[in-house]
Design a protein that fits this description.
The protein has about 140 residues and is mainly α. It has a single domain, classed as de novo design (two linked rop proteins), CATH 1.20.1440. The chain has four helices and no strands. Mean pLDDT is about 90; it is low at about 130-135. It comes from marine sediment metagenome. This is Four helix bundle protein. InterPro entries: 23S_rRNA-intervening_sequence, 23S_rRNA_IVS_sf.
Length: about 140
């Protein structure tokens, strides 16, 4: 995806926008439909992981000038993406009578794409650090 927009803030990152919107969908359309017996397990875990991703991107962006600052946060965001994929998959497979299966599949795709975006962003940051060291 070619994008000529200048990145001035973490809010300009496509992966931030994508994961922020997905977290809102999870919080409004998936978690409320899970049964109460999942309150301290799947609901809690899914809530924390989906909300952590855009937060980690935002926090890491503030440390993007540190040698390993941004990369650590991107790694953590990728891990949270993977955790969210597993949790949404469990929602779909365990609670298919309560949950919109197609929505779950869309969210799984969104978080899978986001994980790959985070990986490419991290690679890009590492290349810049290597290039700066070569100078």
């Amino acid at each position: 995806m070619q994008n000529d927009k200048k990145i001035k803030s973490f809010k300009d990152l496509d992966v931030y926008q994508r994961t922020y919107k997905a977290a809102i969908v999870v919080m409004k359309k998936i978690i409320p439909k899970l049964p109460d017996n999942e309150k301290h397990d799947l609901k809690d875990q899914l809530s924390r992981s989906c909300k952590a991703i855009p937060r980690l991107i935002a926090e890491g962006y503030a440390k993007r000038h540190q040698k390993h600052g941004f990369q650590k946060y991107l790694d953590d965001a990728m891990a949270e993406c993977n955790e969210t994929v597993v949790s949404v998959s469990q929602c779909k497979d365990i609670y298919s009578k309560h949950i919109d299966i197609e929505l779950c599949e869309e969210l799984i795709d969104t978080y899978d794409i986001s994980g790959r975006q985070l990986y490419r962003l991290e690679e890009s940051c590492l290349r810049r650090v290597v290039d700066m060291v070569k100078v």
